[in-house]
Design brief:
0% strand, mainly alpha, 5 helices, elongated, 142 residues, Four Helix Bundle (Hemerythrin (Met), subunit A)
Length: 142
């Protein structure tokens, strides 16, 4: 019991440290990772017949998508893309709700796949931004 509590406390400190030092791009990556982890936990709980844990994990994924990913959208700067992403996040949350209610692992896999695609695109944008910043830094050094 003590080891489990210690491990959880250690993990919490690690996450808090990462959040406090992350840039906005990294924070969104952390939200994607958190939502994916929660969906994976829901799938494991579903397979084990642990309805309480499944519900808690599904709710956590919905909260991350709604209050993290969707809330971080800037409709003024993002325009139509932000609007479409907002609608996609709403769709994902509805699907997660049904996955939980119907014990449907296929729906969990569907949402996980969508999140993975968005995460990969976000990661590629981060690499491009990083490369652009490095190129600008090299030009200024010349």
């Amino acid at each position: 019991m003590f080891a489990t509590q210690s491990a959880a406390a250690y993990a919490r400190v690690g996450v808090e440290t990462n959040v406090s030092t992350a840039n906005p791009h990294q924070l969104v990556m952390m939200l994607f990772d958190g939502a994916l982890l929660a969906i994976n936990s829901a799938a494991i709980s579903m397979a084990n017949g642990d309805l309480v844990a499944k519900g808690m994990s599904t709710s956590k994924a919905i909260e991350i998508i709604t209050y993290g990913l969707k809330a971080s959208l800037d409709s003024e700067a993002g325009g139509e893309l932000a609007t479409r992403l907002g609608s996609l996040y709403d769709y994902m949350c509805q699907r997660l709700f049904f996955a939980n209610a119907e014990n449907n692992e296929a729906i969990l896999n569907e949402v996980s796949g969508l999140l993975n695609e968005l995460r990969e695109a976000w990661a590629q944008m981060g690499q491009q931004l990083s490369q652009s910043n490095n190129d600008v830094g090299m030009e200024q050094a010349d």
